[in-house]
Structure formats: C-alpha cells, structure tokens
Amino acid sequence: MGNFVKTDTTKGDISVNHYAGIEMAEMAKKINDLFVSQGYKLAEGEGGNGIYTKGSMAMRIMFGAMAKYFKFSVKTTSENGEVIVSMEQKSMGATGGLIGLKQVKNEMQRISGILQTL
C-alpha cells in the first residue's frame, strides 16, 4: 500500500501531493526512480528535487509535435509530519502546436496519476 494521502492542487501546470508514513529522503528516491523508469533524465538538481526532462527541445522545435519534449520541476519538502511533493510543468508544448500542448497536458496528468500510487 502506498503512502499517498491527498492531492492539494492539480491545476493545469501544477500538482501538489501529500504523503504520510515515509521519510523525505525515501520519497525523493522513489520520485527519482519513477521519473528514470519513465525515460526522464535529471537535468539539474538532485533526485526528488530538481528538473527532469524527456526528449529533445531542439528536435521539438524542428519537428513540432512529431518529436516529444517534456520538462518538469519537482520539489520535495516535509511539513507537519507529511512529505509534500510539488510538480510543475516547465515545458508548454507550444512548439508542437495544439497537438504539442495536448501532449504536454496529457503527460502532466499521467505522471501526476502515477505519483498518487506511491
């Protein structure tokens, strides 16, 4: 059984989830493992607190929606005995047109859903 308690906010480009019964360092590792297993690379920061990317921005600019590019900022904090994971979408998808915008939105929802299973 996971440690997920509730989602505070899920609006467009931000998702905030609360977890109980887990240490912050352990949650940060789980988050990093999740992103890596989904094909993301840690572009800056450290596991569970950094920027994760997938795909190539240059390819996205050249080929639009045919090339995937996703970028998310993740921040893990601890407050009142809970671990709080904030994820923010950092790529808008505009270089892929309407299809690109939809791809980024869908990826945000997909990753947010997976985070709720931790």
Write the layout of secondary structure elements.
Layout: E1 4-11, E2 14-20, H1 24-37, E3 41-46, E4 49-55, H2 57-63, E5 69-79, E6 82-89, H3 97-115
Antiparallel strand pairs: 1-2, 2-6, 3-4, 4-5, 5-6
Brief summary of the model shown:
With 118 residues, this protein is α+β, with helices and mostly antiparallel strands. It has helices at residues 24-37, 57-63, 97-115; strands at 4-11, 14-20, 41-46, 49-55, 69-79, 82-89. Helix content is 34%, strand content 40%.
How would you explain this protein's 3D organization?
The protein is α+β, with helices and mostly antiparallel strands and 118 residues long. The radius of gyration is 14 Å and the shape is elongated.
Major beta-sheet overview: 6 strands, antiparallel
Q: Give me the oligomer status.
A: single chain
CATH fold type: Alpha-D-Glucose-1,6-Bisphosphate, Chain A, domain 4
* CATH architecture grouping: 2-Layer Sandwich
Q: How does the overall form come out from the CA principal axes?
A: elongated
Number of domains: 1
Give short descriptive properties of this protein.
118 residues; alpha+beta; Alpha-D-Glucose-1,6-Bisphosphate, Chain A, domain 4; 3 helices
